[in-house]
Amino acid sequence: MLKKYIEFMKKSPLITAALCIVYVVVCFNTVPTETNFQFFIVRTLLCGASCFFLYQISGDKTLASCYVSTGYVIKNAIGFLLMSLIMGSVLLLSNIEEQVPLNDNPVLGLIIVFLMFISVGLFEELAFRAVINDAIIYKFREKKYVFVISAVVSSLVFGAAHIVGEFDATSAIAWGQAVAKTLESGVFGLALLILYWKTRNIWACGLAHGLFDFFAGYTEGLFVPVTNSGSSYINTGEDGVRILITYFVVAAINAVLTFLVWKKVGKTIDFEKIRREW
Questions:
Q1: CB atoms near residue 78 (< 10 Å)
Q2: Which pLDDT score, from 0 to 100, does residue 227 have?
Q3: Residue 102, strand partner residues
Q4: What whole-number percentage of the chain has pLDDT above 90?
Q5: Does residue 230 surpass a pLDDT of 50?
Q6: Is the pTM of the predicted complex or chain greater than 0.85?
Q7: Which class for 198: exposed (0-12), middle (13-18), buried (19 or more C-beta within 10 A)?
Q8: pLDDT for the residue 276
Q9: For residue range 79-102, what is the model confidence (pLDDT) as tens digits?
Q10: Residue 71 contacts by C-beta under 8 Å, 6 or more apart in sequence?
Q11: Residue 124 contacts residue 158 (beta carbons within 8 Å)
Q12: Strand, helix or coil for residue 123
């Protein structure tokens, strides 16, 4: 029975990818993550689950292959990392100005937050980049538009995953934030996909992604968190308009940075090699 199941998964890469995404989204909404450490544990376990689904699609090729060094990915993602560091620094200054109290153990808190964001980056690259991209290439590798399909689907699914959850569907601000956040995350995901095509180093892409998240949100480990309700990315309170504008501004910056990545990296990608080997 298990053998037939695995054979079916290998023969149906799109179904395998869909099962992976459904699985992780269900985990998002059902597994409690009340602390950063719990978040780290759950996302680490989801890394293993994503590897399982990925193995059904491409065997150990993606898990064990890389064309270039990790440093290459970090160097070409440096614009995103600098931007996220600026955002994190602004948040740090804001917390200091508002006199938000420090955690009881900020050093430990910073370490836990670092591990949490790295696990998030690795998990999201495995699930939303490698699984979706590899499934589409395995299914449509002979089609000229296969890479366009991969870019659109993986970027949209990745972007939309950030707004999964309940929010006020009657609020224009909420919908605006949902669209803007999807664009912001999706465009960043496209840049990582370009680097993945170039390097097939999903671990380096995961590290770059994790560092991006950490630089932007490291203050979570330093200060006592402010509790809120609803989606963590949708906020229709008094800061709703400011958050909406911020999402669109970051999305525009991400678009420029992604264009620069494509200009520098994209033209050197051997797409025919991807068709043959992936």
A1: 12
A2: 52
A3: 223
A4: 70
A5: no
A6: yes
A7: buried
A8: 86
A9: 999 999 999 999 999 999 999 999
A10: none
A11: yes
A12: helix
| Residue 50, token pair as written in the block | 């994503």
d(CA 77, CA 40): 23
Residue 144 has which token pair? Answer: 């000229």
Do the beta carbons of residue 196 and residue 207 sit within 8 Å? no
Length of the chain, please?
A: 278
Contacts 24+ apart (CB under 8 A), 23-32: 23/49, 23/53, 24/49, 24/50, 24/123, 24/127, 25/161, 25/164, 28/161, 28/164, 28/165, 29/164, 29/165
Burial class (CB in 10 A: 0-12, 13-18, 19+), 272: exposed
- CA 268/CA 271 separation, integer angstroms: 9
Separation between Cα atoms, residue 86 and residue 94, nearest integer Å? 12
Nearest to 50 by CA among 117, 101, 121, 108: 121
DSSP-derived letter for residue 223 is: B
Q: Which two tokens stand for residue 262?
A: 């494509």
Q: How far apart are CA 109 and CA 116, in angstroms?
A: 10
Q: Is 138 helix (H, G, I), strand (E, B) or coil?
A: helix
Distance between CA atoms of 6 and 235, rounded to whole angstroms? 42
